[in-house]
Protein backbone atom coordinates (compact mmCIF):
# COMPACT_ATOMS: atom_id res chain seq x y z
CA UNK A 1 0.00 0.00 0.00
CA UNK A 2 1.12 3.54 -0.72
CA UNK A 3 1.51 5.90 2.21
CA UNK A 4 -0.44 9.07 2.96
CA UNK A 5 0.45 11.61 5.65
CA UNK A 6 -2.13 13.90 7.24
CA UNK A 7 -1.17 16.98 9.26
CA UNK A 8 -4.03 17.74 11.63
CA UNK A 9 -5.29 17.32 15.20
CA UNK A 10 -6.74 14.35 17.06
CA UNK A 11 -8.12 15.91 20.28
CA UNK A 12 -11.54 14.61 21.35
CA UNK A 13 -14.46 17.00 21.32
CA UNK A 14 -13.13 19.15 18.47
CA UNK A 15 -14.89 19.34 15.10
CA UNK A 16 -11.66 19.46 13.09
CA UNK A 17 -10.38 16.35 14.87
CA UNK A 18 -13.66 14.53 14.25
CA UNK A 19 -13.29 15.19 10.54
CA UNK A 20 -9.62 14.13 10.48
CA UNK A 21 -10.63 10.84 12.12
CA UNK A 22 -13.31 10.34 9.47
CA UNK A 23 -10.75 11.00 6.71
CA UNK A 24 -8.46 8.34 8.20
CA UNK A 25 -11.39 5.92 8.24
CA UNK A 26 -12.14 6.70 4.60
CA UNK A 27 -8.57 5.97 3.46
CA UNK A 28 -7.25 3.25 5.81
CA UNK A 29 -8.36 0.33 3.63
CA UNK A 30 -6.68 1.84 0.57
CA UNK A 31 -3.48 3.41 1.95
CA UNK A 32 -1.16 3.31 4.93
CA UNK A 33 -2.31 6.43 6.76
CA UNK A 34 -0.11 8.40 9.17
CA UNK A 35 -1.57 11.37 11.03
CA UNK A 36 0.90 13.87 12.45
CA UNK A 37 -1.04 15.23 15.45
CA UNK A 38 -0.07 18.87 15.94
CA UNK A 39 -1.85 18.98 19.31
CA UNK A 40 -0.46 15.80 20.87
CA UNK A 41 2.61 14.73 22.81
CA UNK A 42 3.81 11.23 23.64
CA UNK A 43 4.54 8.01 21.79
CA UNK A 44 3.44 6.88 18.35
CA UNK A 45 0.37 4.65 18.49
CA UNK A 46 -2.12 2.91 16.22
CA UNK A 47 -5.82 3.72 16.35
CA UNK A 48 -8.06 0.75 17.12
CA UNK A 49 -9.88 1.50 13.84
CA UNK A 50 -6.63 1.69 11.87
CA UNK A 51 -4.16 4.43 11.02
CA UNK A 52 -1.00 5.51 12.85
CA UNK A 53 -0.93 8.62 15.05
CA UNK A 54 2.42 10.42 15.35
CA UNK A 55 2.33 13.13 18.07
CA UNK A 56 4.30 16.23 17.06
CA UNK A 57 3.32 19.05 19.41
CA UNK A 58 7.02 19.78 20.06
CA UNK A 59 6.19 22.15 22.95
CA UNK A 60 4.20 24.30 20.53
CA UNK A 61 7.29 25.43 18.60
CA UNK A 62 6.41 25.82 14.92
CA UNK A 63 10.08 25.58 13.94
CA UNK A 64 10.52 22.32 15.83
CA UNK A 65 7.26 21.00 14.38
CA UNK A 66 8.48 21.76 10.86
CA UNK A 67 11.79 19.99 11.49
CA UNK A 68 9.93 17.02 12.98
CA UNK A 69 7.62 16.81 9.96
CA UNK A 70 10.53 17.01 7.52
CA UNK A 71 12.27 14.14 9.33
CA UNK A 72 9.04 12.16 9.31
CA UNK A 73 8.46 12.71 5.61
CA UNK A 74 12.04 11.72 4.82
CA UNK A 75 11.62 8.48 6.77
CA UNK A 76 8.12 7.58 5.55
CA UNK A 77 8.35 8.81 1.94
CA UNK A 78 4.55 9.25 1.62
CA UNK A 79 3.08 9.58 -1.86
CA UNK A 80 0.93 12.50 -0.70
CA UNK A 81 0.31 14.66 2.34
CA UNK A 82 -2.87 16.45 3.34
CA UNK A 83 -2.72 19.61 5.45
CA UNK A 84 -5.93 19.83 7.48
CA UNK A 85 -5.00 22.31 10.16
CA UNK A 86 -5.19 26.05 10.84
CA UNK A 87 -4.24 28.35 7.97
CA UNK A 88 -2.51 31.11 9.93
CA UNK A 89 0.80 29.20 10.52
CA UNK A 90 1.16 28.14 6.87
CA UNK A 91 4.00 30.55 6.10
CA UNK A 92 6.04 29.08 8.94
CA UNK A 93 6.00 25.72 7.14
CA UNK A 94 7.09 26.93 3.68
CA UNK A 95 10.38 25.02 3.99
CA UNK A 96 8.43 21.81 4.61
CA UNK A 97 6.29 22.40 1.53
CA UNK A 98 9.34 23.06 -0.67
CA UNK A 99 11.10 20.01 0.78
CA UNK A 100 8.05 17.84 0.06
CA UNK A 101 8.12 18.93 -3.56
CA UNK A 102 11.79 17.92 -3.85
CA UNK A 103 10.89 14.50 -2.43
CA UNK A 104 8.16 14.11 -5.04
CA UNK A 105 5.37 14.17 -2.45
CA UNK A 106 2.04 15.50 -3.72
CA UNK A 107 0.84 18.41 -1.58
CA UNK A 108 -2.86 18.85 -0.83
CA UNK A 109 -4.68 21.12 1.60
CA UNK A 110 -8.21 20.95 2.98
CA UNK A 111 -9.01 24.59 3.65
CA UNK A 112 -11.04 25.19 6.84
CA UNK A 113 -12.09 28.80 6.19
CA UNK A 114 -14.36 30.04 9.00
CA UNK A 115 -14.92 33.67 7.98
CA UNK A 116 -15.24 35.83 4.87
CA UNK A 117 -12.05 35.45 2.83
CA UNK A 118 -10.91 38.92 1.74
CA UNK A 119 -7.19 38.62 1.10
CA UNK A 120 -4.63 35.88 0.52
CA UNK A 121 -2.11 37.68 2.70
CA UNK A 122 -0.20 35.23 4.86
CA UNK A 123 -1.87 32.18 3.30
CA UNK A 124 -0.64 32.86 -0.26
CA UNK A 125 1.57 29.78 0.12
CA UNK A 126 -1.53 27.66 -0.66
CA UNK A 127 -0.94 28.52 -4.32
CA UNK A 128 2.11 26.23 -4.24
CA UNK A 129 0.00 23.16 -3.40
CA UNK A 130 -0.93 20.57 -6.00
CA UNK A 131 -4.61 20.49 -5.00
CA UNK A 132 -6.86 22.78 -2.96
CA UNK A 133 -9.85 21.13 -1.32
CA UNK A 134 -12.83 23.11 -0.01
CA UNK A 135 -15.75 21.87 2.08
CA UNK A 136 -18.35 23.98 0.27
CA UNK A 137 -18.82 25.65 -3.10
CA UNK A 138 -19.47 29.02 -1.46
CA UNK A 139 -16.03 28.96 0.19
CA UNK A 140 -14.45 28.01 -3.16
CA UNK A 141 -16.30 30.92 -4.79
CA UNK A 142 -14.89 33.32 -2.19
CA UNK A 143 -11.42 31.97 -2.87
CA UNK A 144 -11.88 32.30 -6.64
CA UNK A 145 -12.96 35.93 -6.26
CA UNK A 146 -9.89 36.78 -4.17
CA UNK A 147 -7.59 35.02 -6.65
CA UNK A 148 -9.14 36.82 -9.61
CA UNK A 149 -8.68 40.16 -7.87
CA UNK A 150 -5.05 39.33 -7.07
CA UNK A 151 -4.34 38.18 -10.66
CA UNK A 152 -2.31 35.21 -9.43
CA UNK A 153 -1.77 33.51 -12.78
CA UNK A 154 -1.74 29.69 -12.96
CA UNK A 155 -3.67 28.21 -10.06
CA UNK A 156 -3.74 24.75 -8.47
CA UNK A 157 -6.64 22.43 -9.23
CA UNK A 158 -9.57 22.76 -6.83
CA UNK A 159 -12.02 20.19 -5.47
CA UNK A 160 -15.08 20.47 -3.22
CA UNK A 161 -15.64 17.70 -0.66
CA UNK A 162 -18.08 18.26 2.18
CA UNK A 163 -18.00 16.72 5.62
CA UNK A 164 -20.00 13.65 6.49
CA UNK A 165 -22.37 13.29 9.42
CA UNK A 166 -22.25 9.91 11.11
CA UNK A 167 -25.61 8.11 11.06
CA UNK A 168 -24.97 7.18 14.71
CA UNK A 169 -26.68 10.47 15.55
CA UNK A 170 -29.78 9.77 13.48
CA UNK A 171 -32.84 9.47 15.73
CA UNK A 172 -36.35 10.76 16.18
CA UNK A 173 -39.82 9.88 17.44
CA UNK A 174 -40.78 6.23 16.95
CA UNK A 175 -44.17 4.82 15.91
CA UNK A 176 -46.94 6.98 17.45
CA UNK A 177 -44.55 8.94 19.70
CA UNK A 178 -44.81 12.73 19.46
CA UNK A 179 -41.73 14.96 19.31
CA UNK A 180 -42.53 16.19 22.83
CA UNK A 181 -42.75 12.61 24.15
CA UNK A 182 -39.45 11.79 22.44
CA UNK A 183 -37.80 14.73 24.24
CA UNK A 184 -39.22 13.74 27.64
CA UNK A 185 -37.94 10.16 27.29
CA UNK A 186 -34.44 11.44 26.48
CA UNK A 187 -34.51 13.90 29.39
CA UNK A 188 -35.45 11.20 31.87
CA UNK A 189 -32.44 9.19 30.69
CA UNK A 190 -29.98 12.12 30.54
CA UNK A 191 -30.94 14.06 33.68
CA UNK A 192 -30.86 11.03 35.93
CA UNK A 193 -31.11 12.83 39.27
CA UNK A 194 -33.19 15.76 40.40
CA UNK A 195 -34.91 18.03 37.90
CA UNK A 196 -35.26 16.33 34.50
CA UNK A 197 -36.77 19.45 32.87
CA UNK A 198 -39.75 17.52 31.45
CA UNK A 199 -41.79 20.68 30.92
CA UNK A 200 -38.91 22.91 29.81
CA UNK A 201 -37.99 24.40 26.45
CA UNK A 202 -34.28 23.58 26.27
CA UNK A 203 -31.88 25.53 24.04
CA UNK A 204 -28.45 23.98 23.44
CA UNK A 205 -25.20 25.65 22.44
CA UNK A 206 -22.80 22.72 21.95
CA UNK A 207 -19.77 24.76 20.85
CA UNK A 208 -16.42 25.01 22.57
CA UNK A 209 -15.48 28.25 24.29
CA UNK A 210 -13.36 29.69 21.49
CA UNK A 211 -13.40 33.45 21.00
CA UNK A 212 -15.00 33.32 17.55
CA UNK A 213 -17.80 31.03 18.82
CA UNK A 214 -19.21 34.05 20.74
CA UNK A 215 -20.97 32.12 23.49
CA UNK A 216 -21.43 35.49 25.17
CA UNK A 217 -23.95 36.39 22.45
CA UNK A 218 -25.89 33.19 23.09
CA UNK A 219 -26.12 34.04 26.80
CA UNK A 220 -27.17 37.66 26.16
CA UNK A 221 -29.73 36.67 23.54
CA UNK A 222 -31.13 33.95 25.77
CA UNK A 223 -31.35 36.42 28.66
CA UNK A 224 -33.66 38.63 26.58
CA UNK A 225 -35.66 35.63 25.37
CA UNK A 226 -36.05 34.13 28.86
CA UNK A 227 -38.08 37.13 30.03
CA UNK A 228 -40.81 36.04 27.57
CA UNK A 229 -40.35 32.28 27.99
CA UNK A 230 -40.75 31.31 31.66
CA UNK A 231 -39.96 27.61 31.12
CA UNK A 232 -36.95 28.12 28.83
CA UNK A 233 -33.54 26.76 29.85
CA UNK A 234 -30.14 27.20 28.20
CA UNK A 235 -27.66 24.31 28.22
CA UNK A 236 -24.03 25.24 27.55
CA UNK A 237 -22.09 22.10 26.66
CA UNK A 238 -18.64 23.77 27.02
CA UNK A 239 -16.42 20.81 26.09
CA UNK A 240 -12.86 21.25 27.42
CA UNK A 241 -13.81 24.42 29.35
CA UNK A 242 -11.41 25.19 32.18
CA UNK A 243 -12.51 26.13 35.69
CA UNK A 244 -11.62 29.76 34.94
CA UNK A 245 -13.80 29.74 31.81
CA UNK A 246 -16.74 28.15 33.61
CA UNK A 247 -16.48 30.70 36.43
CA UNK A 248 -16.53 33.49 33.83
CA UNK A 249 -19.77 32.19 32.31
CA UNK A 250 -21.30 31.76 35.75
CA UNK A 251 -20.47 35.39 36.51
CA UNK A 252 -22.14 36.45 33.24
CA UNK A 253 -25.23 34.44 34.15
CA UNK A 254 -25.36 36.14 37.56
CA UNK A 255 -24.82 39.58 36.00
CA UNK A 256 -27.78 39.04 33.67
CA UNK A 257 -29.97 37.65 36.45
CA UNK A 258 -30.67 34.30 34.78
CA UNK A 259 -29.20 31.97 37.41
CA UNK A 260 -31.34 28.84 37.56
CA UNK A 261 -32.07 29.17 33.83
CA UNK A 262 -28.64 28.09 32.56
CA UNK A 263 -27.12 24.61 32.88
CA UNK A 264 -23.40 24.05 32.43
CA UNK A 265 -20.95 21.27 33.36
CA UNK A 266 -19.01 21.33 36.61
CA UNK A 267 -15.76 20.00 35.15
CA UNK A 268 -13.81 19.47 31.92
CA UNK A 269 -15.16 15.94 31.33
CA UNK A 270 -16.06 15.21 27.71
CA UNK A 271 -19.42 13.48 27.46
CA UNK A 272 -19.31 9.91 26.09
CA UNK A 273 -20.97 9.77 22.67
CA UNK A 274 -24.03 7.91 23.98
CA UNK A 275 -24.59 10.64 26.60
CA UNK A 276 -23.97 13.42 24.08
CA UNK A 277 -26.62 11.84 21.86
CA UNK A 278 -29.06 11.84 24.79
CA UNK A 279 -28.26 15.51 25.38
CA UNK A 280 -28.94 16.29 21.73
CA UNK A 281 -32.24 14.38 21.90
CA UNK A 282 -33.22 16.26 25.07
CA UNK A 283 -32.91 19.75 23.58
CA UNK A 284 -35.63 21.44 21.53
CA UNK A 285 -33.34 23.84 19.66
CA UNK A 286 -29.64 24.01 18.85
CA UNK A 287 -28.06 27.44 18.45
CA UNK A 288 -24.73 28.55 16.99
CA UNK A 289 -23.86 32.23 17.41
CA UNK A 290 -20.32 32.13 16.00
CA UNK A 291 -18.93 35.25 14.34
CA UNK A 292 -17.25 32.92 11.85
CA UNK A 293 -18.27 29.38 11.09
CA UNK A 294 -16.87 26.68 8.89
CA UNK A 295 -18.96 23.55 8.74
CA UNK A 296 -20.61 23.59 12.17
CA UNK A 297 -20.41 19.87 12.96
CA UNK A 298 -22.23 20.12 16.30
CA UNK A 299 -25.26 21.66 14.55
CA UNK A 300 -25.21 18.82 12.00
CA UNK A 301 -25.11 16.15 14.69
CA UNK A 302 -27.83 17.81 16.76
CA UNK A 303 -30.02 18.35 13.70
CA UNK A 304 -29.75 14.66 12.85
CA UNK A 305 -31.45 13.86 16.18
CA UNK A 306 -34.53 15.78 14.94
CA UNK A 307 -33.90 19.18 16.51
CA UNK A 308 -34.42 22.63 15.00
CA UNK A 309 -31.20 24.57 14.37
CA UNK A 310 -30.45 28.29 14.51
CA UNK A 311 -27.18 29.08 12.73
CA UNK A 312 -25.31 32.21 11.56
CA UNK A 313 -26.32 33.34 8.08
CA UNK A 314 -22.97 32.88 6.34
CA UNK A 315 -23.11 31.77 2.71
CA UNK A 316 -21.58 28.38 3.45
CA UNK A 317 -24.11 27.74 6.23
CA UNK A 318 -26.94 28.56 3.83
CA UNK A 319 -25.43 26.16 1.29
CA UNK A 320 -25.18 23.39 3.89
CA UNK A 321 -28.64 23.86 5.40
CA UNK A 322 -30.82 25.08 2.52
CA UNK A 323 -34.28 25.81 3.99
CA UNK A 324 -33.79 23.39 6.89
CA UNK A 325 -32.44 25.86 9.48
CA UNK A 326 -33.21 29.31 10.87
CA UNK A 327 -30.53 31.85 9.90
CA UNK A 328 -29.33 34.65 12.14
CA UNK A 329 -28.78 38.07 10.56
CA UNK A 330 -25.16 39.20 10.48
CA UNK A 331 -23.71 42.62 11.19
CA UNK A 332 -20.18 43.95 10.92
CA UNK A 333 -18.14 42.83 13.91
CA UNK A 334 -15.74 45.08 15.77
CA UNK A 335 -14.25 42.00 17.39
CA UNK A 336 -10.57 41.65 16.54
CA UNK A 337 -9.30 38.23 15.49
CA UNK A 338 -5.86 36.98 14.57
CA UNK A 339 -6.47 36.06 10.92
CA UNK A 340 -5.95 39.15 8.70
CA UNK A 341 -6.99 37.22 5.57
CA UNK A 342 -10.52 36.85 7.00
CA UNK A 343 -13.29 39.23 7.99
CA UNK A 344 -15.73 38.20 10.66
CA UNK A 345 -19.35 39.19 11.12
CA UNK A 346 -21.52 38.45 14.12
CA UNK A 347 -25.17 38.41 15.05
CA UNK A 348 -26.93 40.37 17.79
CA UNK A 349 -28.66 39.39 21.04
CA UNK A 350 -31.85 40.97 19.67
CA UNK A 351 -31.91 38.72 16.60
CA UNK A 352 -31.08 35.67 18.73
CA UNK A 353 -34.02 36.51 20.99
CA UNK A 354 -36.35 37.05 18.02
CA UNK A 355 -35.60 33.68 16.44
CA UNK A 356 -35.76 31.74 19.70
CA UNK A 357 -39.12 33.38 20.42
CA UNK A 358 -40.40 32.42 16.96
CA UNK A 359 -39.66 28.72 17.57
CA UNK A 360 -40.95 28.94 21.14
CA UNK A 361 -44.33 30.44 20.23
CA UNK A 362 -44.92 28.61 16.93
CA UNK A 363 -45.09 24.87 17.61
CA UNK A 364 -45.71 24.07 13.95
CA UNK A 365 -42.53 25.91 12.95
CA UNK A 366 -40.57 24.14 15.70
CA UNK A 367 -41.72 20.71 14.53
CA UNK A 368 -41.20 21.61 10.87
CA UNK A 369 -37.61 22.81 11.36
CA UNK A 370 -36.86 19.80 13.57
CA UNK A 371 -38.04 17.33 10.94
CA UNK A 372 -36.36 19.23 8.09
CA UNK A 373 -33.05 19.32 9.96
CA UNK A 374 -32.91 15.54 10.22
CA UNK A 375 -34.08 15.05 6.64
CA UNK A 376 -31.42 17.47 5.37
CA UNK A 377 -28.59 15.75 7.25
CA UNK A 378 -29.70 12.37 5.86
CA UNK A 379 -29.12 13.55 2.27
CA UNK A 380 -26.69 11.39 0.33
CA UNK A 381 -24.07 14.14 0.04
CA UNK A 382 -23.68 14.14 3.85
CA UNK A 383 -23.57 10.37 4.21
CA UNK A 384 -20.37 8.78 5.44
CA UNK A 385 -20.13 6.28 2.57
CA UNK A 386 -20.58 8.98 -0.07
CA UNK A 387 -17.97 11.36 1.36
CA UNK A 388 -15.52 8.50 2.02
CA UNK A 389 -15.68 7.49 -1.64
CA UNK A 390 -15.05 11.08 -2.71
CA UNK A 391 -11.80 11.09 -0.70
CA UNK A 392 -10.72 7.76 -2.18
CA UNK A 393 -11.53 8.91 -5.71
CA UNK A 394 -9.66 12.20 -5.22
CA UNK A 395 -6.44 10.64 -3.95
CA UNK A 396 -6.54 7.91 -6.59
CA UNK A 397 -6.71 10.64 -9.25
CA UNK A 398 -3.71 12.47 -7.73
CA UNK A 399 -1.52 9.44 -6.96
CA UNK A 400 -1.25 7.70 -10.31
Secondary structural class: alpha/beta
Annotation field: number of helices: 13
Q: Quick one: overall form?
A: globular
Helix coverage percent: 25-40%
Biggest sheet features: 8 strands, mixed
| Percentage beta strand | 15-25%
Which parts are unreliable, with pLDDT below 50 for 5 consecutive residues or more? none
Radius of gyration: 22 Å
Number of strand segments = 18
N-to-C terminal Cα separation, in Å?
13 Å
Protein name: Glycosyltransferase family 4 protein
Q: Features of this protein?
A:
Glycosyltransferase family 4 protein, alpha/beta, single chain, 400 residues, eight-stranded mixed beta sheet, six-stranded parallel beta sheet
Structure description:
By secondary structure, the chain is α/β, with parallel strands linked by helices. It is built from 13 helices and 18 strands. It has helices at residues 15-27, 62-76, 94-102, 137-150, 179-190, 215-226, 243-256, 273-282, 297-304, 315-321, 349-361, 363-377, 384-398; strands spanning 3-8, 32-37, 45-46, 52-55, 80-83, 106-111, 116-117, 131-134, 157-160, 201-205, 232-236, 262-263, 285-287, 308-312, 326-328, 331-332, 342-343, 345-346. The strands form 4 sheets. Strands 3-4-2-1-5-6-8-9 form an 8-stranded mixed beta sheet, sandwiched between helices. Strands 12-11-10-13-14-15 form a 6-stranded parallel beta sheet. Strand 8 (131-134), helix 4 and strand 9 (157-160) form a beta-alpha-beta unit. Helix 6 crosses helix 11 and helix 9 (297-304) crosses helix 12. The longest helix is centred in the N-terminal third of the chain and has 15 residues, at 62-76. It is globular, with a radius of gyration of 22 Å. It starts with a strand and ends with a helix. This is Glycosyltransferase family 4 protein. It comes from Neolewinella lacunae.
Amino acid sequence: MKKIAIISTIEKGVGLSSVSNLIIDALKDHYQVFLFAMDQEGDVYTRAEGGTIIPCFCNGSLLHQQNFLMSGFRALQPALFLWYFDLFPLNYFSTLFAYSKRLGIKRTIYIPVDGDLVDLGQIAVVLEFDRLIFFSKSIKDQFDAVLEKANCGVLPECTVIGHSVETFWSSGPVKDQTLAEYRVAARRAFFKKGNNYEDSFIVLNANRNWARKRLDLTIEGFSKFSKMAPNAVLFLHLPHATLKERLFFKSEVLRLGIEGRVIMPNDETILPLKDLKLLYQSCDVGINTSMGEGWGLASNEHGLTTAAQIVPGFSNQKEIWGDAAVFLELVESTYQWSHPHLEYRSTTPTDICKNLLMLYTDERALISYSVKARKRMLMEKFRLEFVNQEWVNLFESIIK
